[in-house]
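TA notes, week 10

Several of you asked for a full example with nothing omitted. So below is the full record: structure tokens for the whole chain, then the designed sequence directly under it. When grading your own attempts, check the secondary structure regions first.
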């Protein structure tokens, strides 16, 4: 036997595989990447072996693992984006393989509930977690019936997906119908593959199974006005630990997406009592889905007179500089903790650090296309108050932006207060120039 290894299975993108491999190597573990063949050769030597495939069925993955067994002792299996595919739910297939080998893996039912946004609402409602009215529209008649029952304004959004894609606020029947037609036309060509998931049937309890076609249905839910926040959590075993609360100071609601331009931590617009309620709500929401042994990113809005309400729950760390934020405000080493979760090891309770106020700025692409030129990020990295610049898309990459968050970069910086954060954001944004074809 050559050595022990983690097998990382990824159908979406390879960047996380390199992060996992570097952290695994610190534990004396190799990392095997199982993914579709990328457009260019993977250059990071921290990955011990690349196995390329387009067959992510249970039997297809089982065969791949048998070949890995010849040279490695498999200690853990992991997938970050477990999409619903024609050959089955990827998280479900990986969970089944982990069970066969006596390895730890989060519940596929919980991961399905975090992947399918209708199921998220269903689980919250079933658990009695305060939430919002919602329904699944499968044609124009059901769309109008659900919207009128909930009462306008409503939000119309895909059943699956990331990147705030194809999110429509509708104030009346005419807007709902126009948004429905636009969404179903655009979703097949959406930038993020997670939106284009295959039809799937999910058993939601002992008696009920539901069929979903993400290309022909949309989630309808009550519009949530109010201040927006996000909570980063780690679930070690069944214990949910909130780590950092981000106050989203500047949120732009566009016609088909929502852009989060500026976040700050600790929160500046919330009282200590409100922050405690936000953290508690994130904990009970994650518990309602049954997520275990994973990081979680919970997005919420504070509705006056009601308190925090969930927008969505993702079984992974948030985008941009969230890792930097967690490591700024706690003593947790994120990459090392992720390896512990993959291996089924208990992660100790992190210590909260007293740190100065920090802000996170996102740079978004103004439209979809190929990035031909990109400047300003090097200059930003030289600003004294900037701590980290994380480039998410660079020259030569195709980026979204027409109907979704087209992430180019995230900037993590130390600031004095909310006003200082706004000034820093304006300065940072003025430096970035992107030419997109």
């Amino acid at each position: 036997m050559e050595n022990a290894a983690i097998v990382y299975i990824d159908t979406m993108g390879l960047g996380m595989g390199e992060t996992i491999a570097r952290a695994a190597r610190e534990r004396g573990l190799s990392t095997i990447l199982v993914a579709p063949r990328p457009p260019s050769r993977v250059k990071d030597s921290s990955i011990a072996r690349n196995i390329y495939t387009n067959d992510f069925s249970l039997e297809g993955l089982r065969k791949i693992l048998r070949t890995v067994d010849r040279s490695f002792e498999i200690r853990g299996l992991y997938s970050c984006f477990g999409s619903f595919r024609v050959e089955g739910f990827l998280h479900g297939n990986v969970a089944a393989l982990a069970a066969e080998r006596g390895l730890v893996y989060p519940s596929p039912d919980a991961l399905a509930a975090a992947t399918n946004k209708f199921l998220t609402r269903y689980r919250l409602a079933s658990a009695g977690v305060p939430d919002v009215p919602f329904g699944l529209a499968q044609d124009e008649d059901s769309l109008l019936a659900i919207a009128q029952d909930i009462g306008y304004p409503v939000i119309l959004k895909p059943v699956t997906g990331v990147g705030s894609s194809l999110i429509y606020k509708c104030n009346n029947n005419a807007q709902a119908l126009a948004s429905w037609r636009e969404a179903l036309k655009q979703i097949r060509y959406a930038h993020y593959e997670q939106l284009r998931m295959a039809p799937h049937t999910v058993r939601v309890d002992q008696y009920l199974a539901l069929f979903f076609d993400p290309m022909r249905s949309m989630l309808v839910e009550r519009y949530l006005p109010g201040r927006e926040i996000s909570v980063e959590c780690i679930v070690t075993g069944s214990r949910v630990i909130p780590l950092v609360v981000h106050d989203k100071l500047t949120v732009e609601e566009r016609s088909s997406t929502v852009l989060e331009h500026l976040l700050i931590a600790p929160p500046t617009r919330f009282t200590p009592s409100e922050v405690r309620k936000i953290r508690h709500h994130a904990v009970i929401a994650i518990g309602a889905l049954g997520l275990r042994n994973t990081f979680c990113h919970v997005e919420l809005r504070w509705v006056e007179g009601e308190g925090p309400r969930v927008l969505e729950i993702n079984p992974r760390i948030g985008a941009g500089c969230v890792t930097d934020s967690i490591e700024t405000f706690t003593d947790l080493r994120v990459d090392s903790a992720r390896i512990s979760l993959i291996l089924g090891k208990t992660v100790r309770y992190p210590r909260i650090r007293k740190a100065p106020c920090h802000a996170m700025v996102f740079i978004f692409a103004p439209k979809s296309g190929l990035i031909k030129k990109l400047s300003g990020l090097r200059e930003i990295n030289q600003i004294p108050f900037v701590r980290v610049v994380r480039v998410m898309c660079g020259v030569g990459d195709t980026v979204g932006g027409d109907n979704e968050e087209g992430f180019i970069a995230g900037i993590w910086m130390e600031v004095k207060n909310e006003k200082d954060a706004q000034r820093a954001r304006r300065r940072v944004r003025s430096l970035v120039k992107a030419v997109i074809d």
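The chain has three domains: 3-105, 133-222, 227-436. Use that as a sanity check on your answer.
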